[in-house]
Amino acid sequence: MEWLDDDHWLCPQTAEVLSYTILSPNHLVREMITQWCKDRSIKLAEPRERIMDESKITEADKVCLFSLLKKMFSSSISDQKRAARELRRLTRYQPSFRALFVESKDAISRSLEPLVSPAGNGSAAHLLLDPELQEDLITLVHNISVHEKNKRPIARNPIVVPLLIETLKTGLTIQTKSNAAASLFTLATFDCNKVIIGNLGVFKPLIDLVEEGHPVAMKDVLLAIYRLCENRENRVKAVQDGAVRVLVKKIMEEEGTGPVVSMLLTVLTLLSSQQQAVEEMGELGAVPWLLRMVRTTNNETNMVNCSAILLNICRRDRNKRKEMWEAEIANRTISRVAVSRNPSASQNGNAILEKLRKHIIQ
C-alpha cells in the first residue's frame, strides 16, 4: 500500500509498469492464514475495514442511483453539482455502486448529460459548465471504470471516450484533464479498448499535455500513453503525432534525474521499437545523451531503458553504429553496461556490443 500511496507505478522488483494498481482482498490467502493461526492457537487481529462484496447490489442502491441520475437533468446547476458530488463519492467508496452502473441501462450516458452538448456528439459544453461539476463527473467515469465488467461497455459507449479526449484538450482545470487521462489508462486495460481509444485521435492531446509538463497531470498522462502503446498500431499513431520529439525534449529539460525522467524513458523505450521513432531520435542527437545518461545515472531502471533504446537504435539505424562504436572506444560505456549486475541491462549491453562488432567486421 505504501508503495502505491507514494505514487510509484513501476514494480519494485522487475521495474515493469504495474498493469493494475487497485488493490483487491485475497480471500484464499486470508483463509489460509486464519487456519494456520487457528492450528497454533494464535489470535488473528480483525481487519480494520469491512470487505464489501461488489455483487451485492441492494434495492436501496438502485433507488439512490436513479434518484441522483434524475437530478442530472435538473435545470438547477446546484442540484446537478450535489448529485455529481454524491455519485463521485459513492462510486469511490462503495463497490456495489460501481457494479450497478453496468447493470443499469443508460446510467453512464445519463450521468454525463451535463457535459454533453445538445448535438450529442460527445463534445464538452464548456461554456455553460461549472469547473467543479466537470471534475466530479470526469472523476466519476474513472471510478466506475475501475470495475472490470464496466470497462468494455464504457469504452463502447459513443459518448464516453470522445468526451474524455475532448476534456484532455479543453478541460477547465488541470486536475480534470489528469482525471480524464487516468480514466483512459484504466479503460485501456483491455486490448479491444486500446484499439477503440487509439482510433479516436487520443495521442495528440495526450502528447500536448506532456509538452505542457504540468506536474499534476504528467503521471496519469504518461501512464495512459504507455498502456495504449502496448498495442503496436497505437505506437505508430503516437510516433506520427509527435511523441518522440516531445519525450526527448522533456528528458533533456529534466537533465536525466527524477521520477518523471524514469516515466518518460519507459514510454520512449516502448516507442523505440518503431523505425520512425529511431530515425527521429537520430535526428535529435539522442545517442550522445543516452550514453551520457548511462554513464551518470544511479537508477537501474533508467540504465535498463537507456540501453534498450540504444539497442533499438543500433538494430534499426546502421548510420549510428559507427558513432556508437567510436563512443565505445573513447568511454567503454556499453562494456560497463554489459557487466552490470542488472540482468536486463547486461543483456542489452552485450547485444549492442555484438551488433557493433559485426558492423566493424563488415
TrEMBL record:
Gene Ontology terms for molecular function: ubiquitin protein ligase activity
EC number(s) from the headed UniProt entry: 2.3.2.27
Domain U-box per the UniProt entry, residue ranges: 1-43
Keywords: Transferase, Ubl conjugation pathway
Bilayer-crossing regions: none
Name of a matching Pfam family: ARM_PUB
InterPro entries, A to Z: ARM-like, ARM-type_fold, ARM_PUB, Ubox_domain, Znf_RING/FYVE/PHD
Name of the protein described by the UniProt record: RING-type E3 ubiquitin transferase
